[in-house]
Amino acid sequence: MTLLTQTAKVHFMFSSISLAIMKVVMHVSESMHCISAFNNATNLLKARSGAFTDIHIIFTGSAISTLIADSDESPNWEALQQANVVLLACENAMRANNITLDRLLMGVNAVPAGILALVEHQENGYFYIKP
After folding, report:
1. Separation between Cα atoms, residue 20 and residue 17, nearest integer Å
2. What pLDDT does 29 receive?
3. Where are the beta strands (DSSP E) in the chain?
4. How many angstroms separate the Cα of 48 from the Cα of each of 25, 29, 69, 112, 122?
């Protein structure tokens, strides 16, 4: 096999991979990591432009406060929602932070326990990312 053939074969392999469905679950537990999560999701979507990328972000702990509709971070989350990123709020974290679902951005879904949602996502083939 010539070097040109090998190069073409490797390029084809990576081209095929980039078009495959990619499922990612991000876990954000602290509000100070929200910018990193936003940047990670945005960069992944840009890098996979044209390829189906299923991103779910699960918010637990203090990160839950960034999902409040009038928070400083809400425009970032709304932009990701426009790109079909799914935002999930842990109900345990909501209770611990005295936050009700009606205070969160429209379209945010609640899950009973963030840890359970993370495990279930991984069982369903999602890659786990902790920004």
Report:
1. 5
2. 98
3. 22-28, 53-59, 86-90, 109-111, 127-129
4. 16, 26, 29, 31, 21
Q: What is the DSSP letter of 130?
A: -
The pLDDT averaged over each successive group of 10 residues in the chain (131 residues) is 46 55 97 97 94 96 97 97 98 98 98 98 98 94
Q: Which of 81, 78, 99 is nearest to 90 (CA)?
A: 99
Entry field: residues in the chain: 131
Residue type, 4: L
Burial classification of residue 93, based on how many CB atoms lie within 10 Å of its CB (0-12 exposed, 13-18 middle, 19 or more buried): buried
List the structure tokens of 117: 């949602």
**Which domains, ranges and CATH numbers included, belong to the chain?**
21-129 (3.40.1260.10)
The amino acid at residue 113 is A
